[in-house]
Design a protein that fits this description.
The complex is a heterodimer. By secondary structure, chain A is mainly alpha-helical. Chain A is 71% helix and 1% strand. Chain A has one domain: Amino acid/polyamine transporter I (Up-down Bundle). Chain A has a two-stranded antiparallel sheet. The two termini of chain A are 35 Å apart. Classes of the chains: A mainly alpha, B mainly alpha. Chain A: Keywords: Cell membrane, Membrane, Transmembrane, Transmembrane helix, Transport.
């Protein structure tokens, strides 16, 4: 890139912006004929590049005024372990691997029920103005505060109470995330012997790797990870044989409830095992597989150039969709969290990454750039969900309560919405992917797996490989979800022990087995309960848990952006306040609107309280309301509705208390003439010992 | 950017290891030798275990995204 100051240097960027705008125009305006997926890819990539070149540079130079001569925590505290000045490309990989997970893959798939257009537009606009800004700002703030965590920074800048509330919010989010991730696994593995076999096989494979890295050839990650991947692929092949054998298939076929109990038991056992045995090796596998799959998917889309079969906009934008209920505003912005803006990233951008940053000017590339790539992953997920037949998409994702559970009934119901599909076609897809049914597989993972399989089996050699790639995609998602469940339960256990330790100090001891078991059991019970209710409640599941997850995740992003806004005021940079204030306000409006609608909407399909009321009244009148089949199920629905309502109220309380403290601190700082932020003092690069 | 493929391979290996939370061992040894020559340097095996424990075992381990 030349560094001349002539205006001509902007010309290529102008051309790129024009290309992006035109591609987006094609995506948005072409109706009645199919659109090639490449248009979406070109539009998003061109706009990301332009946003990176101009908007992130503006934020770096004017808003944050990144200083290349300022020593970063990695330089000041360099210990070769936690604090290491790291090459920016290597750090980019570390940061990206930490932020990319199931979220950006599942959200867009669920949002595809409104058509690909609303989700794609939100992904692009959301990441440029909110998501990437949040990651960048938090990384910057943490780097200037010796790599402190989000909770610590909120406490320092806004006070003790605000900090504690934010931490409590983080714990709630963790529980919801674990429940919703586990639910995705349950939905993908129920009645699927092939899937269950391959996922179970990961446990001995991980143990083998763990023992190898611990005792046989300590620390040799590369060679044994390669062996692990080969064994995984072999287990997918073997899973196919298992599923084809009537006796073995029966042994590995489980209902959703059975898999739920297995997961809960697994979560408990795995969280108290030594980390090197299962958690660490499986994390290695899932990380490498994740990066590999993302790259393969990108290449696959570029090579096959699939047509998008989903319409740009479906009739379900009005809120009547079968996958989840709710109107475009605010629920689209809740459903697609990761990929557009994800509060969880604030925890990572204030975790290990700032301790590895070699120079703070690289925060732009890693914070803003890393999130752009994550958004691109979400765009690919949207493409994968849109290349499959819409009829298949809706048959897979509609709950039995809406479309029935018989293949003929489902095909008729989905066709009546205008997405023509025959029962034979649905069965053919199930046969292609090696499953006996594809009905009621909400949760995003199976749909995405069908999409990925459709794209990959065109690119990679071999005949009839659809089934193999479907189960590969399921395995790949299950792998990192199980890792998240495992790691999340551990982190949640420490949080819980810390929280309870305030009352019973003995519980805080992480060395004591009793306290550990109690903390772990408490944490597993919390997410396990939410998971269980999502599986057994005839009306529960993804359609109730995912909005809760989205609300909590966006709420955390709101907190991070409010922190950014407060610090900008304290730094006396009020004229650039809008950079963090506008996305913060947008997230507050979306989460509050979504929270209040979920609470108070008079329609029982949307509002938790209305649902509880409807079933309570029916109970009092001695009636049974479908899909509940017994009084117990009726009571279950009522109880769950109240649980979900309580969680929603808690989220709203958390976000409004942080808002209160943000406004109070912000106004106080406005009245001061000097800077009042708590940055660590300047130290020149090269000036440290 | 890269002079030769060997260097590229080294970078990719470092990137892959850091993705799973394993910083560069050579860099650690060099750091210890330059700045703390009086302190003992962990062997690669000990370094590997220490880093694994730090990433997953402690309460402050970095959470991964959804």
């Amino acid at each position: 890139m030349n560094n001349t100051t002539s205006p001509a240097r902007h010309l290529p960027w102008l051309a790129l912006a024009a290309i992006g705008a035109c591609a987006l125009g094609v995506v948005a305006l072409r109706r009645g004929e199919t659109v090639n997926a490449l248009w979406i890819v070109v539009a998003s990539v061109a706009l990301y590049l332009v946003a990176y070149r101009y908007y992130s540079l503006f934020i770096a130079n004017k808003v944050m005024q990144l200083d290349p001569h300022r020593a970063t925590p990695a330089v000041i505290n360099n210990d070769g372990l936690d604090y290491v000045p790291t090459n920016k490309h290597i750090l980019f990989g570390h940061h990206f691997a930490a932020i990319a997970g199931a979220g950006p893959l599942v959200g867009p798939v669920l949002a595809a029920q409104m058509g690909y257009l609303p989700g794609t537009l939100w992904l692009i606009a959301g990441v440029v103005f909110a998501g990437a800004v949040q990651d960048f700002v938090v990384l910057f703030l943490s780097t200037r505060r010796n790599g402190r965590s989000l909770g610590d920074m909120v406490r320092e800048e806004m006070g003790q109470v605000a900090g504690t509330i934010a931490l409590f919010g983080c714990f709630l989010i963790m529980i919801i995330i674990l429940a919703v991730l586990a639910l995705i696994v349950v939905k993908a593995l129920a009645e699927s012997p092939w899937g269950v076999f391959t996922v179970m096989a990961t446990i001995p494979i991980a143990m083998l790797m763990g023992v190898y890295m611990r005792y046989i050839r300590p620390g040799r990650i590369g060679e044994i990870s390669l062996v692990g991947v080969v064994l995984l692929l072999a287990s997918i092949y073997l899973g196919g044989q298992v599923a084809a054998d009537p006796v073995w298939a029966k042994a590995f076929t489980f209902t959703g409830v059975q898999i739920t109990w297995m997961l809960i038991g697994y979560g408990f056992v795995a969280a108290v095992l030594p980390v090197w045995l299962v958690l660490a090796p499986r994390d290695y596998l899932s990380t490498f597989l994740k990066i590999g799959t993302i790259i393969a998917l990108a290449i696959g889309i570029l090579v096959t150039m699939p047509e998008l079969k989903m319409p740009a906009l479906t009739q379900f934008a009005d809120g009547t969709g079968p996958v989840w209920k709710g109107t475009l505003f605010p629920f689209l912005f809740i459903t697609i969290a990761c990929g557009a803006v994800s509060g969880f990233h604030a925890l990572i951008a204030s975790g290990t990454t700032p301790k590895l940053l070699d120079n703070e000017v690289n925060a732009r590339y890693i914070g803003y750039g890393g999130m752009l790539v994550e958004s691109f992953v979400a765009v690919m997920a949207m493409v994968a969900a849109s290349v499959i037949e819409p009829g298949v998409y809706f048959a897979m994702n509609s709950p039995a309560a809406v479309v029935g559970s018989d293949i003929n009934a489902v095909a008729a119901a989905v066709s009546s919405w205008g997405f023509m599909i025959t029962p034979d076609a649905l069965q053919a897809v199930a046969n292609d992917i090696g499953e006996h049914t594809i009905l009621a597989r909400a949760g995003g993972a199976p749909t995405l797996a069908v999409g990925i399989a459709q794209i990959l089996h065109h690119v990679l050699p071999g005949k009839n490989t659809m089934a193999f790639w479907y189960h590969f995609a399921i395995l790949f998602e299950a792998l990192f979800i199980l890792t998240a469940v495992d790691a999340g339960t551990r982190a949640g256990r420490f949080m819980l022990q810390d929280l309870l330790g305030a009352f019973v100090p003995a519980l805080r001891s992480t060395e004591s087995w009793g306290a550990n078991l109690l903390g772990t059991a408490g944490c597993v019970a919390l997410w396990g309960y939410l998971l269980y209710q999502g599986v057994v409640d005839p009306l529960g599941g993804i359609n109730t848990l995912w909005p809760l997850f989205g609300i909590s995740n966006q709420m955390l992003a709101g907190i991070a952006l409010m922190l950014g806004t407060v610090v900008l005021i304290k730094m006396k940079r009020e004229r650039y306040l809008w950079v963090t204030l506008l996305p913060a306000l947008w997230l507050l409006v979306c989460t509050t609107a979504a929270g209040l609608i979920k609470l108070l909407d008079p329609s029982p399909a949307v509002g938790f309280l209305a649902l509880a009321k409807k079933y309570n009244e029916a109970l009092a009148a001695g009636q049974l309301l479908a899909p509940a089949k017994s009084v117990e199920q009726m009571q279950q629905v009522v109880f769950n509705a109240y649980t979900n309502a309580t969680l929603t109220v808690l989220f709203l309380l958390v976000v409004f208390s942080v808002l209160y403290f943000a406004i109070r601190t912000g106004i106080a700082a406005l009245g001061r003439k000097e800077r009042t932020d708590k940055e660590t003092p300047f130290q020149a690069l090269g000036g440290q010992q | 950017m890269f002079n030769d493929l060997g260097k590229l391979g080294k970078y990719l290996g470092q990137a892959a290891r850091l993705m799973v939370g394993m910083p560069d061992y050579d860099n650690y040894v060099e750091h210890m030798r330059n700045t703390h020559p009086e302190q003992p340097v962990m062997s690669y095996e000990a370094f590997f275990r220490e880093r694994q424990e730090a990433r997953y075992g402690g309460g402050k381990g970095s959470p991964r995204c959804c």
